[in-house]
């Protein structure tokens, strides 16, 4: 069944730019739309109206996950619409607006039963893909509510801002599968000139906070050899990790210290406490465990050698996930039909909501290129012709599946 003629690329692009206006940064096409913030809630209200206008029934669960539901059993399409603290206009938003366009076209022409979702807090203001983690049962609502952001705000407090919008739980049993369209967020497709990536699997991820407690002291009068400087401990830890992981990891393994908080964070005070994030990703679950052992052993050695107290936050994360063979097959066939010879199969090094949803139903993912491989930055962008190409491939795959 050919459906490319019924999707409206102009409407799709106009809605994508409209969504960007909620939290537009004024720098390039940047967006600042963190979960549960004013811009995020305004965007969700606008998306809810678009879903209703498309003939879908709007439901919002207690986490703020926004659904536009077709009648009866349906295939679920979508992604997320919250952003990083300094994010781009396409990360997550592309998958939501593509889903909206295809579902709208399906309602207009009949014959296809498609639902749409925008998951909440995918970008991890409070955890790791928190909205879909709670919806899928990976994380309980009680445990999620106890999570805090870097400013100390509890998720329970933040989600209360959406309380008046909540309609109730959304039953996953009504969906036959989930397909998430996304920008690659890496350089492969842009470097090769290919138009589409059909995802084979999503890597596993581990994420935890580590704290070194030393001794706060005067920066001018405390001799260097007597200092119990918590930031020096973080620095030493980071340097050792690069050496100690050499024989454990593969070229595809990545690890990152992305956030460091010092106390009291003053120029003339030796920091007595350092709290930092440690995140690592790999496609092999056993290797993720070996990396954790190296991390904990190294941190303990640093703490002992420098007179520090060491503590850890909860270990968060997800196992590697293989995409569903049938859904993958439909995406491969549609890619070959629309952009013959200009697509590839590839893994996803980034975590996505599809990881959580895979516990409930078959899942698959489709990538379009990211210019220069840049994402999670204001410079994030994709040629609009490539965005439309992805829309057409997804629409054709959905039609073939139906």
Please write out the topology.
Elements: H1 9-20, H2 38-53, E1 57-60, E2 66-69, E3 74-80, H3 93-109, E4 114-119, H4 130-136, H5 141-145, H6 155-159, E5 175-183, H7 188-192, E6 196-202, E7 204-213, E8 217-218, H8 230-244, E9 254-256, E10 260-263, E11 269-270, E12 273-282, H9 285-306, E13 309-312, E14 316-318, E15 321-322, H10 325-338, E16 343-348, H11 353-357, E17 363-368, H12 384-401
Parallel strand pairs: 3-4, 3-5, 5-17, 6-16
Antiparallel strand pairs: 1-2, 2-4, 6-15, 6-17, 7-12, 7-13, 7-14, 8-11, 9-12, 10-12
Helix pairs in contact: 1-3, 8-9, 10-12
Decide which structural class fits the backbone: alpha+beta
Helix content: 25-40%
Compute the number of helices: 12
Which spans have pLDDT < 50 for at least 5 consecutive residues? 1-5
Order of helices and strands: HHEEEHEHHHEHEEEHEEEEHEEEHEHEH
How many extended strands?
A: 17
User: What general outline do the C-alpha atoms trace?
Assistant: globular
End-to-end Cα distance, whole Å, is 9 Å
Largest pleated sheet: 9 strands, mixed
**Gyration radius, in Å:** 22 Å
Mean pLDDT: 95
Percent range for β-strand residues:
15-25%
Summarize the structure.
35% of the residues lie in helices and 22% in strands. It has helices at 9-20, 38-53, 93-109, 130-136, 141-145, 155-159, 188-192, 230-244, 285-306, 325-338, 353-357, 384-401, and strands spanning 57-60, 66-69, 74-80, 114-119, 175-183, 196-202, 204-213, 217-218, 254-256, 260-263, 269-270, 273-282, 309-312, 316-318, 321-322, 343-348, 363-368. The model is unreliable at 1-5 (pLDDT under 50).
